[in-house]
Amino acid sequence: MRDIKIRDLYAGKPDAKDEINFEGWENFIKTFVVADHFNLDLLTKGNHCFITGFKGTGKTALLFYLDDKLKNEDESTCSSFILFKEDFADAKRAELQALSNRVLSSVSVEQGALTEATEFEYVWRWIILKQLVNDNEIYGRNLFVDDEHWHRFEKIVGQIKAPRNKRKILLANKIKFAIPYKDPTTMAEYSPEVEVDFQHPSSQQYQDFVDLVDAAENALANLTRTDIPYYIFVDELEAYYGDEQVFLRDLYMIRDLIFTVKRFNTTFARTNMSQIKIICSVRSEILTAIQRFIVTKEINKVTSGFSVPLNWNYTNNNSYAHPIIQILLKRIAVCSGADTVDSLQIYRQWFPEQIHGMEAANYILNNSWCKPRDMVRLIMVAQNSLHNNMSVFSQIVFDSTSKAYSEDSLQEIKEELRALYTTEEINDIITCFTGYRTSFSIRDLQKRIDQYFSGTILKTKFRQVIEDLYRLGFLGNLLPASQTYHWQHKGDSSVIFSEEWRLCVHYALHGALSIGLRTDRAIRRDAQIGDTAKATVYDVLNQFALVEFNLFGMVYKGSIHISEFGKNGYGYIPRLSDIVHDDDQFDVVLYEYDEKYSNWKLKLQPEKNTL
């Protein structure tokens, strides 16, 4: 094993295509990790065809890995990629195709085009039909039996004029297609070109286009597949809330692409075409945006029944064995030159037993969203730090990189929010939490919004914003009494709105938002239900212990009922003064405020007050 430094490690790139393009295919495959619970067979052998997940969970990487896996299992396998709105330069496309040995196609939209259209299913059907013809040509006409049925299918599809570059489709408002016509007098055949405007679906030209696509699909059903496995992978389904018309157009396009993928896979299955499938990756936030902003066409029925969620909320007893940590360890192993990867040995060599009092792997996981991209970000910020010449990820390395890691993480969340909010709305949301507190009640946050952000989306759509921030991992829930946390990326799907539970900001974002324990102590607030405190007894009555406690620099009065002591192991208590005395201290939870007596009713914390 070679002696290497942090600066020598293989970091990869945040985007899988860039990693393959700039770092090479071999290292990408060597460092790829598939979580044990992720069932690849559902995609390769079953009827599932969608990979869903948040940004950074590895959807694109999984598509490339699936392609490689299928080709290793059967060397005759053929495949192609369709990248929506990924406008490669021809040189970059050729380079990436050469490095990954993949056929890449891109579909983009001419600037300002199709902004009034809301239906794109027939456009996508035409694009997929063209893809089948083009791929068959590239692969030596070996994907389908070359008979009269194929010739008829190819002829129909060819009537719609394709761009000169068959692998780079630029959609405009209008396209041309030819309608064959035979003169009844001379019996001569003509193919006059007709222009169809996609933004006018009620026109005769559009109906002719629809009829042509329908005819091609009917012809597709009569084709015979060869025994060569064939897959089409679809990626880069992005939409950003900038120009509203363009944003809505992209959502309509992505919605209809999802329906089109399902439609073709159904056709393949119904006509007994073997070993052919279209597999598509979809960002979770794009699905949320479709459900929020446009007519969905019941898209949930398509995605939920045929999708495999890509998540990493995985638990085990040995935290170094968590698949996210394995991604980090594999990247170290690639650079160390080890013949075999001994995860535990690498982990013990490169990480201390504890970081800030926490086992190292747990510390890393708690500072992440359990996404592969988090580990790429961790290595990259460490390589750009003043301590990149170290041979271990020591506590000083983590401390010196925490700010940069935090800022990069916040930028990633902002990118996710762009599918749901305008730039101005995102700025208002982030500003609201900047310099505030690490945890807070719903009531406190609403007071802050009323005071400083009353005219923003935080006020008008408070619950929606909080639910979005929870789903993206910006916010979590905290129950102060037991220090219990809930996070979406750890399997807790919904945010909790209650007085007992707090909202809390993800620890990894504290640096970027200028918050932490020091700011928490500096910002005063009133005591609230769910707070915990150390209470001191100043008087004992027959049924109550009267106490005082300090919170946020203020002294409060409260009472603990005799029944609380009975619940906590004291048994039958004839007189409370037999067991409770002045100056005794108890760990308590605030659960109700008595307005009449200006007094807090308190519960004992069982885990801290048992006999």
Polypeptide structure, described:
The strands form six sheets. The protein has a seven-stranded parallel beta sheet with strand order 4-3-2-9-10-1-11, with helices on both faces. A five-stranded mixed barrel has the order 18-19-20-22-21. Strands 14-17-15-16 form a four-stranded antiparallel beta sheet. By secondary structure, the chain is of the alpha/beta class. Helix 6 (121-138) crosses helix 8. The relative contact order is 0.09. It has three domains: 36-309, no CATH class; 421-522; 532-609, OB fold (Dihydrolipoamide Acetyltransferase, E2P) (Beta Barrel), CATH 2.40.50.
List descriptors:
five-stranded mixed β-barrel; alpha/beta; 611 residues; 3 domains; OB fold (Dihydrolipoamide Acetyltransferase, E2P)
Mean pLDDT, to the nearest integer, reads 87
Strand order of the largest sheet: 4-3-2-9-10-1-11
Number of helices: 24
How does the overall form come out from the CA principal axes? elongated
- Number of separate strands: 22
Biggest pleated-sheet summary = 7 strands, parallel
Number of domains: 3
Low-confidence stretches: 88-93
Give the proportion of residues in helices. Answer: 40-55%
Question: Could you tell me how far the N terminus lies from the C terminus, measured between alpha carbons in angstroms?
Answer: 54 Å
Class inferred from helices and paired strands: alpha/beta
- Backbone CA Rg: 30 Å
Strand content: 15-25%
